[in-house]
Design goal:
The protein is mainly beta. The chain is about 5% helix and about 60% strand.
Amino acid sequence: MAVFIYSATRRFIPAHVATEEINNGLFTSNTIGWTSQGGVISSVASQLNIAYTSAAAYAHQNIVIIPNESYLLKVTRESASHASFLTVSDSFTTTPVGIIDSRIIPSGSFGFASQFTFSSPLALCNVSIGIGDTGESGTGVFDTMSCKLDGSFALTHPINYTIEIERETTSSRSLGGNTQSLVKSRSTKLNVTLSQIATADVPEVDEFLYSVSRGEQFALDRNLESSVDLSLGTFINMQMEGGWSKSRMANSDYFSFNFTCREVSQ
């Protein structure tokens, strides 16, 4: 299942004006604020490098949050030879302890933000980026780690969509002796259908569509899908293109919605 994440800043519910909770999340001040575990961390060209040898390695820090409020945690991975993981937990020893939520970033996904929302009853928690496993070695490169009080809302109804890649340019780079193709630019369009929407849920879908109908960005979270094309990433930032249609499904009290949206370059 995919989920649309949006911020209703234009109608119904104002988004929070959020401050950044991550210390040195742009990695411009070397690795100040970050603690390494199981590997070596460094800042190169304002990107976090995590070197790991035959075991998992982490960069982590504690953050102070408002208990039971929703926060958005995200990071962009620029390159890596193995899967990595973005985690928020109660604390950290040699690994995260009391995991609140976590996302695996597959080994083939580069240059896309991995993110999720979380809440905790505690005022202090830990955020970490981990990479590697037993017998694996390499270096992971990460960019722009952020955690802010969330103004986002999730539209969790089943989403059916088709993806059209209208234009794509790539470049090649050498990593660990292997040549990898990286997407430099891409024009991606999604044709979306929301079906079997019960009458009671129509106002929620209307709110989402009105909120994003004038250019406000939203995102397609594909983390819960059983099969994801990694070249597109698991979290796609979008804008609506044109309007939308709504119709009652034949011989039922359910509605369907159809619209088109386009990927927004970050």
